[in-house]
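W.,

You were right to be curious about this one. When I first looked at the sequence I had no strong expectations either way, so I just let the prediction run and decided to look at it fresh. Below is the sequence, 491 residues in total, followed by the output.
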Amino acid sequence: MNLILDGHSYKYELESLANMFFHDQKVRVVAQKEMCEGECIYTRSASLPDGKVELQVATRMDGILREETFQGVPDEKDPERFCEYHLCRMLYTQLTEATGILLAWGMLTGVRPVRLIYRYRERGMDDAQIREHLNRDYFVSDEKIDLLLRTANKEKGILDLSRPESFSLYISIPFCPSRCNYCSFVSHSIERAKKLIPEYVTLLIREIQYVAPIVKGLGLRLETVYFGGGTPTAISSDQLEAIIRAIEENFDLSHLREYTVEAGRPDTITIQKLEMLKRRGVTRISINPQTMNDAVLEQIGRRHTTAQTIEAFEMARKAGHQNINMDLIAGLTGDSLESFCRTIDQVIGIGPENITLHTLSVKRSSRLGQHAKEFYLQEHQRVTDMLSYAGQRFQQEAYLPYYLYRQKNTMENLENVGYCKEGMEGYYNVYIMDETHSIIALGAGGVSKLRKPGGTLLHRIFNYKYPYEYIERFETVLQRKNEIARFYEEP
């Protein structure tokens, strides 16, 4: 599908919106001179002599031409937003009619829609006014507005705990027992990367030792620690404990609100590791089944069973862990709505304090073939029904949404949501997604995001992506960490 921009540069929003309707094909932005024959989207903005602008959207699909023109006087404070909004509104209306797809999030394309709630409340809007505005002007469904309002109510308290000098620490352990077929993270299978692990752990500890004096000198206050990956428990208990000990010895943990380790894959969890994590002060762990359907687990490349998930959870309770998260994914290969609903009910029955529900990225596939639109509609409805069922069940069982974000390439940009029992929110999840304060990331693939107190500017420091690069170019990794002090010390 070609998208033509004529007289304007509102590429990002229009392209993002159009892509939510066309999972079987990539929307391609072309110049006006390349006006296409056949199916295409045409958008135009032109200034008129009386101070008005004329905006036009035309779509040609399945041999049917749809066209709308709008004239108006742009808002003096933000004329660009005025034009962009009306072009998106006309495009959304035409694509909804042409495809038969009604997006639950309407024409919202942002990763963090919950921020809109804060913005509207700061303007003095009450929840009824916010609901009317999102529904009428952005076509957001009542279900998603409810989710936004409930999430904002829980999340705001966590955001308010962050202080100007706060920061969080992310530790990357980029190794897994095997690679899942949907994975986009930097992770290596243990079989392929086992020989790298001892040196990786040694250098990661050196990076911890190097960075700690920098943040101490800046007077920064550590709020949360998060071990992610990969699967942190894919390495040995001794290796994992050595890293945790290095953090204890080098960082001030006296203000720590949360210490999370993604135990992740049940087939990497042992009672020894769980007892060590509890002994070392870890306050929150994840045991992530993704699904409780063994056939689906096999299809996605996970080498564990539902029985192992339950066994790992019971071991964690035995070791004294009282704040456990479980990750699930809606839309996995081979998973039906009925199977997914059974997974939700089974996980709720186990009783974790946190359940994080992700929506799978739905890849463009040769399965689409000549029936792309029909397949898309089926997939769209299946995943939508999965999220609706989960949301209803979580609400019935007093699991409260406390953070929410959306990703590109998921079906209609559907959401990922963290749910928790009262008082069991995962603080790091909120801080990393909201970019509330600096996140200092150590290890391969780590991306530090620095934010000055009271500022909005983010500065990123990238570690090398893969473990072998991290090892080979480790001195450069350390040199880059000197940017932390420079960033905070610059006026």
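Here's what jumped out at me. Residues 156-485 form a domain with the pyruvate-formate lyase- activating enzyme fold (CATH 3.80.30.20). And, maybe more interesting for your project: The radius of gyration is 24 Å.

Coffee later to discuss?

I.
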